[in-house]
Specification:
- The structure is a single chain.
- This protein has one domain.
- 87% of the residues lie in helices and 0% in strands.
- It has 17 helices and no strands.
- Helix 6 packs antiparallel against helix 7 and helix 11 runs antiparallel to helix 13.
- The longest helix has 52 residues.
- It is globular.
Length: 476
């Protein structure tokens, strides 16, 4: 089976599961936001963001290192997983204690401490689920990850509905996350043990030291990544209050839904690109170029349309209580475009064993982000945090482009031509939306037709793209 076909089959499983996850997530996002109200939703957002930043302490980049290693050496899976699981237990206990200490030092109130500690437990369980999902990716067995994700998200929606119906408050919502992830962990462990490989449980001290040292660059990058994307909500809570965090978090959750395709694509393409780096570096660059093109083809017009209808979207989803979030959505939507570009660049650099370089890039961006937020949040509150995120994303993309060029990975000029055509097609869409001034529901089908017509007339798809489509459809 060709790599194109393998990638598509894995993406199909993951895409279906992520569509289900997005639908479920969309529903529970609305339910939780409306049920909790802006201030309590701000506490919920703080807890998720704070534990997200500390999540790297549970994993220390081990999962990413394992994906890269066993994707080129399947026989090592049992030993790697057998040592990683007890090692993560030690990290988990330390992370829980660290979380409690930090919350006390921050003088958080009792409800914030209780909710955050519950989400810390959920984060620890989720870290083990991610370890096995990464291993499924390494074996290019995306269907098991897809099934596991589906089980997790459906159960989470059911548990959240029960918590809301029983009026269990913030604590009930947190327990819902814990229970759903625990069931998902049982599933992924059982399937991996029965269908892929049996972890050889042991605690080889020297081996654990070795994989930890190799994983640290991934850990630092992951930590900086989480600082970069989550510190704004922590800073908003401490500098402005729970209300501002609730407004910002409402938009952030919608942005997370829009990262659907990026999450699926990256999960599937990273192990394949690691193999290309080992066996065929020319294919590595082609994979990077096509990643950028296809991701931008989807997200840029979506960003344009979202910017025009941000008020309608916020009102439809959250109601009048969250009307202030529309301005945040109009700004943050552009981070999705930049995230897709930087994500593809990160995949290229990590697959090329340049994880230290990625770490340095995110270190610079994290410092820039925090420093600018110290100025922008007191000045513009949640809008200031949104502007800071966009500017930080632009900085990352600029640095990545410079690094990739210096490494000799110079994309074909046609990529730049295709990106210009995609931007022009999106501008045509935007102009049409302004002139027609349509209702949002009518604008969706009309906008799709206009954009597809523009892309066709601009001849964005070439022979290579048709080959990829033929491979997917089994016509070659």
């Amino acid at each position: 089976m060709s790599h194109v076909r393998t990638i598509f089959e894995n993406m199909s499983w993951l895409l279906v599961s992520q569509i289900i996850a997005s639908i479920c997530g969309f529903i529970w996002t609305i339910l939780i936001a409306r049920y909790l109200g802006v201030s309590n939703y701000g506490i919920y957002g703080f807890a998720v963001s704070f534990t997200g930043i500390l999540a790297i302490a549970v994993d220390l980049g081990i999962s990413t290192h394992i994906v890269r290693h066993i994707s080129t050496d399947y026989d090592s899976a049992s030993k790697y997983l057998g040592n990683a699981m007890p090692l993560k237990c030690i990290f988990s206990v330390g992370t829980f204690i660290l979380t409690l200490i930090l919350l006390i030092l921050m003088k958080s109130d009792e409800i914030v401490i209780a909710v955050t500690l519950l989400f810390t437990i959920e984060m620890i369980i989720k870290s083990y689920v991610s370890l096995f999902n990464g291993s499924f990716q390494a074996f290019e067995e995306g269907k098991y990850q897809g099934i596991g994700n589906t089980i997790l998200n459906i159960l989470l929606l059911v548990f959240i509905l029960i918590a809301i119906y029983a009026d269990l408050g913030l604590l009930g919502i947190a327990f819902s996350y814990i229970l759903a992830n625990f069931v998902a962990l049982i599933y992924v462990y059982h399937v991996f043990n029965r269908r892929i490989a049996k972890p050889k449980f042991e605690f080889d001290v020297e081996f654990c030291k070795q994989i930890t040292m190799f994983s640290i660059p991934f850990a630092v990058t992951g930590f900086l990544y989480m600082i970069y994307y989550s510190i704004d909500m922590v800073m908003l809570t401490n500098m402005v209050g729970n209300y501002a965090t609730g407004i910002y978090n409402a938009t952030y959750k919608l942005i997370s839904v829009l990262t659907l395709f990026y999450t699926v694509y990256t999960a599937v393409i990273f192990p394949v690109m690691s193999k290309f780096y080992k066996n065929d570096e020319s294919m590595l660059l082609i994979s990077f170029e096509k990643s950028i093109k296809y991701l931008m083809l989807v997200i840029i017009p979506l960003a344009v349309a979202t910017m025009f209808y941000s008020s309608d979207i916020i009102h439809l989803i959250y109601g009048h209580e969250y009307d202030a979030a529309s301005s945040v959505l109009s700004i943050l939507i552009w981070t999705v475009c930049l995230l897709f570009i930087s994500g593809a660049a990160n995949t290229l650099l990590n697959a090329s064993h340049k994880e230290v370089t990625v770490t340095k890039i995110y270190a610079a961006a994290a410092v820039f982000n925090i420093a600018l937020n110290l100025f922008m949040i007191p000045l513009l509150s949640y809008n200031g945090a949104a502007i800071t995120t966009v500017l930080s994303d632009i900085l990352i993309v600029i640095i990545q482009a410079f690094v990739i060029y210096r490494l000799g990975h110079r994309p074909n000029r046609k990529l730049y031509s295709d990106l210009i055509k995609i931007i022009i097609g999106s501008m045509i869409l935007g102009i049409a939306l302004i002139l027609l001034n349509l209702n949002m529901w009518l604008a969706i089908p009309v906008g799709i037709i206009i954009y597809l017509a523009a892309i066709y007339l601009l001849r964005v798809f070439d022979g290579d793209d048709r080959y990829v489509i033929n491979e997917i459809l089994k016509r070659n």
